[in-house]
Structure formats: C-alpha cells, structure tokens
Amino acid sequence: MTVVSQVAQLVMKMQQDLAGLAIKGDEALDQLFPPRDEHPEWATFDEDVDDYLDGDDGAEPPRNGERLTEGRFALYSTGEPESRDERPVTKVAASAPGIVAELDYESLTLAQLRARLPSLKVADLETLLAYEGTTKARAPFQTLLANRITRASAK
C-alpha cells in the first residue's frame, strides 16, 4: 500500500512540474510573439455597447429584439419587427388563399408552422410557399415550406 501511495505521489509531482514548464513556455512565447488584440467584426462585447452609447463613431446602438429573427431564435419568431411602426406593408386579407385564413398563417411562428406541416397536402404547401413569396418573403419560412414539399413529393 505504501508503494502505491508513493507512486501516486510521484506521478502527481511530475504532472505539477510539467504544468509549470508549460506555463513558463507560454510566457516565453508571449515575449517572443506578443499576442495581437484582434476583434472580429462579427463579435460584440459589453465594452462595444458602451461605445455605441457614447456616440463616438456615430453608429446607432442595436435595437431591442433586432436579432430575434436570426440564428437559433428564428424558430420562435414570426420574422416581423417588434414595433408596429416598423412593420412592412403587405398585401393581405382580400388576396389571401383559403389555407392562409384557415391556419391563421400570418400569426404563426416558425415552430407553430412546423407543427402543422404534416397535416397539409402538397397543394396547400405550394400555396403557402407562393403566398409567403409574394408577401413577406421570410427565408426561414420559405426554406421550411420548400423542404416539406420536397419530402412530401418524394413519398
């Protein structure tokens, strides 16, 4: 038992020495090749938001909810701006096909539409895709409908 304990102690000491050497190596490399302070243009940090608020470069701060229709949150949004003042004018009501009114398509989020897709026929899906293309033309909605049409036609 004593031998096992001594071997474990020796292994842990070697790991500590190796970690110390790695730290010294990193410090030496930092002196030879100083790290650059790079900020990718797509990255935003808390300090950047303060710069927007100071108004140094004249840029506008990002509006609340602006990114909710992009990326992983697109699934739960309707793709419309939050404020009613910013909503685009669309052709609705009079020229809307029956399936649009039946599903209350205008108010559906992407996740809600996805849940209703299996119960729709290919003709209804094509009608919804055409309607989406002539009104709001939201890319996630069009992609979802087109993919569903492809899968339903293949069956």
Please give the count of helices. 6
Total strand segments: 0
Radius of gyration: 28 Å
Based on CA inertia axes, which overall geometry fits? Answer: elongated
What's the domain count? 2
Beta-strand residue fraction: under 5%
Structural class: mainly alpha
Mean pLDDT score: 76
H/E topology pattern: HHHHHH
Largest pleated sheet: none
Query: Which segments are poorly predicted (pLDDT under 50) over 5 or more consecutive residues?
Result: 64-69, 83-94
Distance between the termini: 67 Å
Helix content: 40-55%
Please characterize this protein's 3D structure:
This protein has 155 residues and is mainly α. It has two domains: 1-35; 65-154, no CATH class. Helices cover 53% and strands 0% of the residues. The protein has six helices and no strands. Helix 5 (122-134) packs antiparallel against helix 6 (139-154). The longest helix has 31 residues, at 2-32. It is elongated and about 80 Å long. The protein starts with a helix and ends with a helix.
